[in-house]
Amino acid sequence: MKATNITLYSTNCPKCRVLISKLDNSQIMYNVCEDVTVMTDKGFTTVPRLDVDGEVLDFKQAVDWINERATK
User: Fold this and answer.
1) Structural domains counted in the chain
2) Residue 53 in 3-state DSSP?
3) What CA–CA distance (Å, rounded) separates 22 from 19?
4) Which of 42, 47, 48, 62 has its CA 20 to 30 A from that of 21?
């Protein structure tokens, strides 16, 4: 099942750049939110976070999710 709405919450930190690279290399379409106020309002205390159709993934979960799609 393909995700229809993917948002990367990023402050352009090193881990954020890793996810950007992995998403781009896997040709996964996504939106980027760099608004710290939005992230704080969502309760995020760390970034990056990847929201996939309403399921928020931390860095490791996001890498695993991307890797699963890259091997298909």
Assistant:
1) 1
2) coil
3) 5
4) 42
CA distance 13 to 48: 8
CATH number of the domain where residue 47 is located? 3.40.30
CB count in 10 Å sphere of residue 40: 10
- pTM attached to this predicted model: 0.90
Q: What is the tens place of the pLDDT at every residue in 54-69?
A: 999 999 999 999 999 8
Strands 6-9 and 49-52: antiparallel
Cα three-residue angle 67-68-69, rounded to 5 degrees? 90
- The residue segments making up the domain with residue 12 are 8-70
